[in-house]
Specification:
mainly alpha
């Protein structure tokens, strides 16, 4: 009887340790996912991103448009909030794209696809 009680106590302690470990990991992940200097809305992409059809009409294949959208939504957001490309004059946006493409270590193909994709958005009538 005493041996089974010790086994039960050991199992409860193990479960407690596992639970605490999960909470610590969850807290660390949640802490990394939010930047206290930014509110949750600032991480949202600007409205009106180009559809596959609009990007295709501008000369991107459906695959290129999908790749560029993924870069924009996930690679750019790794480091900073989204900036609305329409809020910048052409020259200023080109400078930012050149700088950020280097920081993100985009390949030349990724850079060209991303620029073409964002240009579709910048030239569209919606904001």
């Amino acid at each position: 009887m005493c041996g089974s009680s010790l086994g039960l106590i050991y199992n409860v302690r193990s479960l407690g340790t596992i639970g605490i470990t999960i909470l610590v990991i969850w807290g660390a992940v949640a802490g990394c996912a939010t930047d206290p200097g930014q509110n949750a809305r600032s991480k949202a992409p600007p409205p009106g991103l180009p559809s596959d059809e609009a990007a295709n009409a501008a000369g991107l294949s459906l695959e290129q448009a999908g790749n560029a959208r993924q870069l924009y939504l996930f690679r750019c957001a790794q480091c900073h909030r989204f900036y609305n490309p329409k809020d910048y004059p052409d020259a200023a946006w080109s400078q930012w794209m050149a700088k950020m493409s280097k920081k993100a270590r985009l390949t030349e193909q990724e850079r060209a696809e991303l620029i073409a994709y964002i240009d579709v958005f910048r030239k569209s009538g919606s904001n």
